[in-house]
Design brief:
globular; 6 strands; alpha+beta; binds adenosine-5'-triphosphate; Chromosome partition protein Smc; Rossmann fold
C-alpha cells in the first residue's frame, strides 16, 4: 500500500486543481521559499483527518481555503483527494485503489468521502488504524517531530511503539467497550431506582 497520487483543489496556495503522482520509493519536492512545499504535506495531513488548524500552520480551519491574491478571488471550497494503491489489501477494503477525500466549505462544514461515497471521519480513522497513517500516526514526521521522539518519556515512546505495532487499534476498541459498559451500568442503576420507586 502506498500513496500513489494526491489531488489538491483550493487548498491554501493551490487555487487550481493540481495532481501530484508519486512513484514507489523516495519523492523530493523542491522549490523556492514560500512556493507551497509544506502546503503539500499539510494537505495530506488535513485529508487524513487533522482537526487542529494550528498543526496546519493556519489561523483557523476556514483559513486553509485559498483566500485569494491580488489577481484571483478567494474560493469557497477546498478539497484534497488522496489516492492509495491497495493491491496489497493493507487497507481493509476490497479495492485495488482507494481514494480518501476531504472537503471544507467557507460555512465551516466538512465532508469526507471514501471512493467518492460520503462517509464519517470515523470511517477514515478506522480505515487507517494499524497502518501508521492518521492523526496519531507516524507517517508524517515534521521538522520538530524527530526531536520530540528523542525527548519523549518512556510512556510516550511505548504509545508510539503500540501504534506502529498495531496494538492501539485494540486499545481503542477496548476503551469504547468500557465506555459502553459504563453507560449500561448507569442505565441499570437508573432502572433499579425506578423499580425501588415502584415497589
Ligand atoms: P519554505 O521553503 O519557506 O518552508 P514552502 O515552499 O514550504 O516554504 P509553504 O509554507 O508551503 O511554502 O507555502 C507558503 C505560501 O502559502 C505563502 O505564500 C502563503 O501566502 C500561501 N498560503 C497559505 N495559506 C494560503 C491560503 N489560504 N490562500 C492562499 N495562499 C495561502
Amino acid at each position: 500500500m502506498y500513496l500513489k497520487a494526491i489531488e489538491i483543489i483550493g487548498f491554501k496556495s493551490f487555487a487550481d486543481r493540481q495532481r501530484l503522482d508519486f512513484e514507489k520509493g523516495i519523492t523530493c519536492v523542491v522549490g523556492p521559499n514560500g512556493c507551497g512545499k509544506s502546503n503539500v504535506v499539510d494537505s495530506v495531513r488535513w485529508a487524513i483527518g487533522e482537526m487542529s488548524w494550528k498543526s496546519l500552520r493556519s489561523a483557523s480551519m476556514i483559513d486553509i481555503i485559498f483566500n485569494g491574491t491580488a489577481r484571483r478571488s478567494p474560493l469557497n471550497l477546498a478539497q484534497v483527494n488522496m489516492i492509495f494503491d491497495n493491491e496489497s489489501r493493507k487497507l481493509p477494503l476490497d479495492f485495488n485503489e482507494i481514494t480518501v477525500s476531504r472537503k471544507i466549505f467557507r460555512s465551516g462544514e466538512s465532508e469526507y468521502f471514501l471512493n467518492k461515497v460520503q462517509c464519517r471521519l470515523r470511517d477514515i480513522r478506522d480505515l487507517f488504524l494499524d497502518t501508521g497513517i492518521g492523526g496519531e500516526g507516524y507517517a508524517i514526521i515534521d521538522q520538530g517531530g524527530v526531536e520530540s521522539v528523542l525527548s519523549a518519556s518512556a510512556e510516550q515512546r511505548r504509545e508510539m511503539f503500540e501504534e506502529v505495532a498495531g496494538v492501539s487499534k485494540y486499545k481503542a476498541k477496548r476503551e469504547e467497550a468500557i465506555r459502553r459498559l459504563d453507560r449500561v451500568d448507569l442505565d441499570i442503576a437508573r432502572l433499579s431506582d425506578t423499580v425501588v420507586l415502584l415497589d
